[in-house]
Fold:
Amino acid sequence: MTRKFFHACILFFAAQWAMAQDLNFEFWFNDAPLVLGQTYYVPQFADSVRIEKLAFYISDVVLKDLEKQNATKITDVHLIDLSQQHTLVVERPTLNHEAQLLTFNLGIDSTRQVSGVFSGPLDPTKGMYWTWQSGYINTKLQGTSASSSARNHKFEFHLGGYRMPYNTLQHVALLINKKQPKIMVDLGAFFDTLSINNTNHVMRPGKEALALSQLFALTIKPYDE
Amino acid sequence: MTNKSIFWGLLCAMMCSIGLSWIGLRHYPNYFPKPYYEGRMTDMSVPEIDLGRHLFYDPRLSRDNSISCASCHSPFNAFAHSDHDLSHGIDDQIGTRNAPGLFNLGWQTEFMWDGAINHLDMQALAPMTHPKEMDESLTNVLQKLSTDAFYRKKFENVYGPDGLTGPNFLRALTAFELSLISTDAYYDKVTQNRAQFTKQQVRGQALFTKHCQSCHTAPLFSNYEFVRHTLKIDSTLDDLGRFMVTLRSQDSARFKVPSLRNLSFTAPYMHDGRFHSLREVLNHYAQTDTARPDVDPRLKKAVVADAVDKTDLIAFLLTLNDTTFVFNPDHRLPYHY
Structure:
């Protein structure tokens, strides 16, 4: 009995340790945790926004040990959807790396974009594939804003496009805490820069989609508790 | 086991293998280039093609279960839509483009008149979700199909347990579409020394080689490039073609060069179906102002002005009709309905 309890304890703590090694995405709106459906004030524009949907792809996620100069692929493609809690954690092998550089692409690269249909996170039933024109929506951000002149004060950003010169794929590199590898996505920075009054609908590839993709990439930062 | 029984066993296996290959329609003449989708065309199985064929003819792919792929892509029109300049979709709505014929798709890299679709797997999503065509979501279609034991079994047979998924649905349609290979026109019979052209057809072929071949390249009779033609833009459609995909000004009014195979079955012609006869098309090119700076240099060669020459050229173009393909029972509405 004692032996079994001892084994269970080992398994429990091993699992805890392994979970601590996973990559966790946390969402914020400036200093407040981001909750879907909740209204946030945007002081820059004296505006308010409510986010109803936020989903985006990360791909080719790699952790690099800067001391040993080796790299480990964590996952090929992962779809993060704020409405589904389990997608906010990216599992990774339990490694004993020291300083960790995390790199990934925000979006889907052009090779995958032209390679036909995939299962898993790239399954077109996930709602992240344009149908009228081939291509994945790299980032989907929808909601309402007091200043939006669109119907029902909506804003809708479906950011994608893989053809040059408007390839919206963004490369992200972060130095992360090796014990608590958290990544912060702060939408406050996005809405402090973008006037919803001027831009409330971008739903196709082009110059605006590229600019907003670059802006969205800046919301992703390492988390420092 | 005797030597005799081993011999007959091996012979049967060889015959079955050859037979299955032909049923799968994966063969093409040696003067055809290597298909872009060669791997898929080799790997796809007869049951997968058959599943795709059922889906192609199934109106449950549309919101109100009224429109199937075949509604605008009839097998008897080489999978184009006869008598409709623009596609006719759900609730009697009219689209913005002429439904093209579907054949030899394995040799193409981009689909639709503007190449908006970059892979055949993804093509079906466009008409299925378009509000003027089928106005349905992939998720809803899968839900409808999952209530049908026939499909559950078919998907399981082809893709294994839990095989009824979005990606597999699209792969099955691709398999059927890749099986639509048109290689038995009179032109092919002549090329394979199984027939001979008449003198008029020979003259027509010479004219074709001189005036048309650079874009409508044999044996597919298209180079599948996007070429700026000289048609006046229809102000009711404002269709800028390839520009809407690439957003590059130089791609404005460029459309994909269609194949000239099966022309007798695929009228009307051009991306907006504005011409109803081949002679109208030839007359258009004859009247083109080739001095215009925006005219593709290859179109300057496309002028065939003489009436007799036009007749000879049309005589050759008609040799590109493939009745074996158009009347192939393996492509028609399957028995399930």
In short: Chain A has one domain: 2-222. Confidence is low (pLDDT under 50) at residues 11-20 of chain A. The radius of gyration of chain A is 19 Å. Chain A is about 20% helix and 40% strand.
